Amino acid sequence: MESFSLILAIVVVTALAFDFTNGFHDTANAMATTISTGALKPKIAVTMSAALNLVGAFLSVEVANTISKGLVDETGIRPEVIFAALVGAILWNLLTWLVGLPSSSSHALMGGLIGATVASAGFGAVHGDVLVTKVLLPAVAAPLVAGLASMLATRFSYGIGGKAEGEATRKGYRAGQIASAGLVSLAHGTNDAQKTMGIITLALIAGGAISPGSNPPTWVILSAGLAIALGTYIGGWRIIRTMGTGLTELEPRQGFAAQTSAATAILASSHLGFSLSTTHVVSGSVMGAGLGRKGGVVRWSTATRMAVAWVLTLPAAALVGAGAESVTDLGDWGTAVVAVFLVASSAAIWKISRREVVDHTNVVTGTEEPAGVVTTAIAAVTPPPAGTITEGLTATIASPAAAEPATPAAPPAATV
């Protein structure tokens, strides 16, 4: 290692902080359906996911190389640019976590990197062909492919299983769901942990610590794996709630189909070096599983909010990254200002989140959406079923025997 400056150390620490937020932001990808169907207890689920995320980090470096060697021109990037990119990614992760939206940590990172790079070196420093082929196209195709596969797998499982709903059948699907959840966690480590490896490797190249074109050093792989595993263990309970029961209601066989489809898509993309959003893939597979069961319902209002967040992620992180880079470009004091802003903003978001705590004790409750205006109006005017007696209803007309009028009754009206 040739040199390791203070700014480079700050970038590495910030990158690991992003990796930590990536872990708790994306815990839902692997374990939300497993928790919502009762296949695993919440704490056991996140512990298992954390361990497998760490293992997955050592299986490949293809995605890391896509970020460190392919997305931007590594020869013209300063460590401050990468720091600014991480600021945009971290803040977007925290904001979407606060509101419980499963947005893409991957696209937040790449958006921040693109914005900061453009602000520093211009649009020519971004490799547009890599951005389109390995980022944007997979972002659109992956959730559609995973959703379709999950829907077909769900229909197939109900078709071959018929009406078998015994305890043995449920236990079998729960066991399969646990296995598939483990596979998703492993796949998440091979894909998302590598993104931080790639960004740290890019920073080391920019800072002159390693030569251009190098693969991630072993200590980078280990530290990135540990950071994402710790974040996963903490558990992003707000997003787990949205993904597990806020999007659709799943039975064990649906959860098994969704997670198997997602794991297959993620592992395939990692092998090809696609910097895929695991959030997009798992969300698509969960919706596909919801549509695959007869009578299944997808909460499209939640799905729409998620889609809006997906569209905004890359440009929003890019704008923050570009703004942060403009400030860091002013010198060391500018970098210090950005660092203080990042810490203060993160602390403020955390404090706001404490107003309504979501953890392993209440992650599967309180997810029903409020009734719409039409539903409420119909319920208000619907009469009780015929033949029922409403309790508490008393007569308001006195019987003839009990009636004692104070004045003589008026003569009856003439009948025509």
What is the tally of beta strands?
0
Share of helix among residues? 55-70%
Which geometry do the CA atoms define?
Answer: globular
Average pLDDT, all residues: 77
Largest sheet: none
Count up the domains: 1
Which residue ranges are poorly predicted, with pLDDT under 50 across at least 5 consecutive positions? 366-404, 412-416
SSE series: HHHHHHHHHHHHHH
Structural class: mainly alpha
From the alpha carbons, calculate the radius of gyration and give it in angstroms: 28 Å
How many alpha or pi helices?
Answer: 14
Distance between the termini: 114 Å
Strand content: under 5%
Can you put this structure into words, describing what you see?
The protein has 416 residues and is mainly alpha-helical. The protein has one domain. The protein contains 14 helices and no strands. Helix 4 packs antiparallel against helix 5. The longest helix has 40 residues. The C terminus is likely disordered.
